[in-house]
Write a structure and sequence with these properties.
Rossmann fold, 2 domains, alpha/beta, 7-stranded parallel β-sheet, 276 residues, Arc Repressor Mutant, subunit A, 10 helices
């Protein structure tokens, strides 16, 4: 028996969410020629069936898949990541020494720190290095090591040895998933070991993760963080997961996310400029 029209549409939505990571309600409405409320009902059904995790303005597939590259992840939940980065930057004071992980959301935080004064930033991520390399008011330390091309971050014994010679006021970590029971998830045991070491060297530990990453367990490598760490996420985060994290002593901070593209003018048309 062939699927109904609504079921076929949901199957196609799931395929899009799996291949692109994030799909907006408005885009889906235009693609399938139905109203936004119909798309929202589809997303609610897929979420109730455990096939999707709702995100700001769209959905992300929950099915297991290979590790995405940093380039692929950069466009996911863009508005939420930007809001999380802004909220995280507000935690940083003048004259502090901070440690930045690799990853797209932490890379967005590095961008927000370009206007900082008298700041020292150590990082394991190429994105943060690129953001801050030309900022004269920020002193940058690169924790080198073995480069993972997918994450654009350094790992391994050289990175770990460099950490032993520094302490930090704050560390900001990225993650592929968060579980109240297990901690934060990554694709590689070298990454989770490094995150644990990074957390031990800082007075304050933050994890930056948009809503779709909460409750996700895409891989089997986990980092356990010290008690009292802070999660900065967006308002679409699952309340039950947030409650479970809070019960374990995690401080939860919700970043204020503006409506999609609220503070971005529409790009000029016909300019012939290449995509960023």
């Amino acid at each position: 028996m062939s699927p109904t029209g609504s079921q076929a549409r949901r199957d196609r939505i799931l395929h899009l969410a799996t291949t692109t990571g994030l799909t907006s309600v408005e885009e889906l409405s235009q693609r399938f020629g139905v109203t936004a409320s119909t798309i929202r009902r589809d997303l609610a059904k897929l979420t109730a069936d455990g096939r999707l995790a709702r995100t700001y303005g769209g959905a992300m597939a929950l099915t297991a898949h290979p590790e995405a590259s940093l380039r692929q992840r950069t466009g996911e939940a863009f508005e939420a990541k930007r809001a999380i980065a802004r909220r995280a930057a507000a935690e940083v004071g003048a004259g502090e020494t901070v440690l930045l992980d690799a990853g797209s959301t932490v890379g967005a935080l590095a961008h927000e720190l370009r206007s900082a004064k008298e700041l020292t930033v150590a990082t394991t991520g190429l994105t943060a290095l690129q953001e801050l390399a030309d900022v004269e008011t920020v002193h940058v330390e690169c924790l080198g090591g073995t480069l993972r091309p997918l994450s654009q971050g350094f790992v391994g014994p050289l990175t770990e040895a460099a950490l032993e010679h520094m302490t930090f006021d704050r560390v900001f970590l990225g993650t592929d998933g968060i579980s109240p029971e297990h901690g934060i998830c990554e694709a590689d045991l070298r990454q989770t070991r490094l995150k644990e070491l990074m957390a031990r060297r800082a007075d304050h530990v933050y994890v930056l993760a948009h809503a779709a990453k909460l409750g996700r367990r895409p891989f089997h490598a986990w980092a356990t963080l010290p008690e009292g760490w802070t999660l900065i996420t967006d308002p679409d985060a699952d309340p039950a997961t947030l409650d479970a994290l809070s019960e374990r002593g995690v401080e939860v901070v919700l970043a204020e996310v503006p409506p999609p593209a609220a503070d971005y003018p529409a790009p000029p048309t016909g300019s012939g400029a290449p995509d960023a």
